[in-house]
Design goal:
This protein is mostly helical. It contains ten helices and no strands.
Length: about 180
Amino acid sequence: MQQERGPEALRLQTQARELCSEHGHPVRAVEMEMMLGGYLMRLDQPRLAAATFVRADESAYEHQSYALACRARLNEGVAHEADDSVVDAIRAYRRAIETGKGIGESPRIVFEAYRRAGEAALKQGLEIDCIGLWADAVAYGQELEPDQRGSTLKELAKRLSEMLTRHRRYSQAREIDRIAEQF
């Protein structure tokens, strides 16, 4: 890919994935699948990339690599957004959130999925959906240790507060501001 030889890179990456599977390295095969999806994104093939990330998620689940499954769903959402399929993107982000909050134990990916899902909702003019997503992110962040929250959460809370103010939900905005000071 670095040498601008996309088709050859795809072929070699597919071979790498297959070799990992054949030689009993299923998690490594999922990583190869993820790289393949990244290559497809770089080659402006978001639909194929999304399908690749779905396969990576399914295989990661099968092999109990839940953090990798969470990352695969986040990447699937990015691919759907690149293909202007916002509903599918939000659905993928929600799956990343569910997995990351649960068995995937990936708070940073969860926050990125919340942020991206909210952004996608905003692009569609769905501010109330964005408020709900970002409010859930802030509530989730309160349950975590400071080192698990990442830097995204405070910025997310600030944007949420501004949006709540625009919707004249002043008391909620003040509460979010108060919570954000803890981050």
